[in-house]
Amino acid sequence: MSYSNKYTFAALPRTQRGTPLVLGSDPKGKNFLYTNGNSVIIRDIENPAISDVYTEHSCQVNVAKYSPSGFYIASGDASGKVRIWDTVNKEHILKNEFQPIGGPIKDIAWSADSQRMVVVGEGREKFGHVFMAETGTSVGEISGQSKPINSVDFRPARPFRIVTASEDNTIGVFEGPPFKFKCTKQEHTRFVQAVRYSPDGSLFASAGFDGKIYLFDGATSELKGEIGSPAHKGGVYGISWSPDGKKLLSCSGDKTCAIWDIETMQRTTTFNMGNAVENQQVSCLWQGKHLLSVSLSGVINYLDVDNPDKPLRVLMGHNKPITCLALQPTTKTVFTASHDGCVTSWNTTTGEGRHIGGAGHGNQVNGMCAGKNGSLITCGIDDSLRFAVPSAEGEVPSYTDKCVPLGSQPRALDHIMDEDMTIVATVKELLVLAGSSKRSNLPVSYEPSCVAIEPKSKHVAVGGADSKVHIYSLASGSLSPKTELTHLGPVTDVRYSPDSMYLVASDANRKLILYSVDEYKLAHNKEWGFHSARVNCVAWSPDSKRIASGSLDTSIIIWSVEQPAKHIIIKNAHPQSQITGLTWLDDESVVSVGQDGNTRVWNIPKA
Hints:
The chain is mainly β. It is found in: Cytoplasm.
């Protein structure tokens, strides 16, 4: 039996306040690049639902850039390593790995012939290095600046030049090869955050946290003038040239982006991106006919020159680890929530993500369930239960003002849709709610970790840190203990099968145990223990014949109820990232989410 990864709904760029983000562009115009954690994410610019994730770095990646030939990508990480890997093969074969500086790399630039490369950042003994991409041989020194270098660019025409932007408020100019320090430019009064040559190399522009953008001659580095006066009210985080070199796009902490006419040095268009802190613009890219900017929240905006107040499209999703997952069974909409409290609704056919509006939890969401009429019920570590409701059928839900205080931290919840009844397991008690009103509570002596309701028999299974599954009966809105099932490790997830015949429980001892619901006896004598670390989550296929389990070991295993000895292992389902949630869309499709912020859809045909 084979499986395939149908889609990857990619994570957004990982942003940080006061720190510019670098977007990479494809010389062929097809893709764009950014980084999140230890991943480099390649997305199709026309159809961003098509994406690819490179995860071979062992620590946080800060920047990735295509070579001008388009055949290679160079990515630099927080340890000072640069990996050069190919873009043609699906496996992204590593061509070279170098350690040019001894600290975080902040920017990378290639020479126009794809032969030489310069990297800059926060090295211990030097802030940048120029070398041959094939051999790693040094072709010059980057010196003359006293603080970390934020940005670098290579002149795309001869005579070759390199310009660097530093936190000592200067721009460094280097001539070569071999590259030697020529001079510094001291026009800026704050950190210089970006330097970029025009496509023909005749000019270069610099931008800084003083809100100013300056224009220089590409060959002599002579100052041509200042663009705007100043260009922005806040720090300028990024600049990008139009393909014809006649215009420049800038993005700023003043929550705007702007297009500048190079000849007149005047602003032609202003894009207002909003008023909230998360609308600060930390990166921009002009690629072909597409103008992109990235907000502090991580969302990617496609700017519309004809309507500057409303982006053409906005790419949403998560840039922090995803903590839970829920499915709306009728519409097949998938909801994901991350540890910053952001909840996203995914259309699983188009891959489009939309954030859920309204005042949510503001921090980690621990439990989530689909409710009636497209609504969503969530609980978070703000010790509350909240409800999101769509304004019209088919619309993305928004949080309402309704909020139920829980009294202690919730760990999980489950919901019976027909009766609008919710059970929340908190660290101290089990709460039963009808709608948003509390019906009963049952204090517990153990710490619950998960909860599942069986709608027909009204049995409730609660997994605990005491290595037991506690079974309760639910009658007239209150719970009474029924039996206990013992595991060899803390129980991490419990799920009843859709046909009400089975209960599956997973634990930290790497095992899954299947029970028949009538007497809570073992359903078979096969041991399901093929994971190599704690199992985090389990999910039933709609026909109750298969179970998916996700683990700390980054793999997903599909188990067969009818043939317990058979299983399919999806290794490295989320490379270098544990699986935190699973659900089945239909009998042959599984959705998985992980600590890497990506949501993946897998096609797993029946035998």
